[in-house]
Amino acid sequence: MTPFEFEEPTSLREAIALLDPDDASVRPFAGGTALMLMMKAGVFRPRRLVSLRKIEAEYSGVRVAGDGTIRIGALTPLAAIEHSLDVRRVQPVITSTMRVLSNTRVRNVATLGGNLAHGDPHMDLPPVLIALEAIVNVVGPTGTRSFPVAELVTGYYETQLAKNELIAEVVIPAPQARRSVYLKCTTRAAHDWPTLGVAVSVDAEPDALRSATVVVSAATERPVKVLSASALLNGRQITAPLLREAGEAAAEEVDVTSDLRGSSSYKRQLVRVYVERALRQAIGDKAGTLQ
Predict the structure, then answer these.
(1) pLDDT given for residue 38 in this prediction
(2) What CA–CA distance (Å, rounded) separates 275 from 74?
(3) Do 272 and 226 fall within a single domain?
(4) Which of 6, 80, 85, 176 is deepest in the core (most CB within 10 A)?
(5) For residue 1, what pLDDT is reported?
(6) Residue 164's pLDDT is what?
(7) Cβ 105 vs Cβ 119: under 8 Å
């Protein structure tokens, strides 16, 4: 491992000033679970690491408003989100997702901001936050800007973050009457990298869907909203053929990739099955009895 500078600023403003918009070898450092692996493998050789561990406490922790809106600081460890009783009460899909996200050791160290900024398409949390219509607040030298988590990742390990910008907070709107589900397909243990991840969020009456959001990840270069499936489902009576049709629409729309976890044709079939399965769970038909 080659020598590098290590800075420990005590404020977010100081941390941003230490970053270099023109030098990709200068990186912020929070939990470091992915960064350390890249450094050990020689994939990334930093000139300077800027630690975020000593900056203001306001960028850590979970706060839930009376209406159910959740605000999570970017430096909050994933384990803290997993064990938050307020998160489990308001958005149980986040809690259940955390329990299959990597392992306990990683969740104790990895932070929310780092998880999102890494841009890895196999992460479990981004598709869930996209389905929940979450907003990310980003701070840079010129101030703060906000945009949907759906717009954060722009390509394979690529985000729209400038090299001198940091995620400060994620805001998850109140769920209202929506029910959400995340399903993943892995080739090994439940907490392993997914071959496919599917997140859905629905606003449903007993026999009809007011609206539905479908997000596919892991089998694609970045998490993507499946607009054709959502358009098909919105305002429709709930039937088994409709849910199968939504799975088929998703499989046709998404641009799946081949890798060691499976061929594109295999993953496309997974999309068909898992989108329908996730929708069934979200509307309460876990046993598959809907006809």
Answers:
(1) 81
(2) 30
(3) yes
(4) 80
(5) 62
(6) 96
(7) no
**Got the DSSP string for 215-258?**
EEESSSSS-EE-HHHHHHHTT-B--HHHHHHHHHHHHHHS----
User: End of a domain among 124, 153, 172?
Assistant: 172
Q: DSSP character for 259?
A: B
Which is nearest to 76 in space by CA: 171, 181, 157, 210?
171
**111 and 211 share a domain?**
no
Which residue segment(s) compose the domain that 38 sits in?
Answer: 5-51
pLDDT one-digit tens code per residue, 132-180? 999 999 999 999 999 999 999 999 999 999 999 999 999 999 999 999 9
Tell me whether strands 48-51 and 26-29 are parallel, antiparallel or unpaired.
Answer: parallel
Rounded to 5 degrees, what are φ and ψ at 25?
Answer: -85, 0
Residue 83 · residue 104 · CB < 8 Å? no
pLDDT of residue 200: 98
Query: For the whole model, what pTM was predicted?
Result: 0.94
pLDDT digits (tens, 9 = 90+) for 80-119: 999 999 999 999 999 999 999 988 888 999 999 999 999 9
Name the 3-class secondary structure at 8: coil
Does 121 share its domain with 226?
no
Q: What is the DSSP letter of 231?
A: H
Q: Which helix (H) or strand (E) holds 211?
A: strand 209-217
* Pairing of the two strands 224-225 and 209-217: antiparallel
- Would 20 be classed as within a structural domain? yes
Report the relative pairing of strands 143-148 and 135-140 from DSSP bridges. Answer: antiparallel
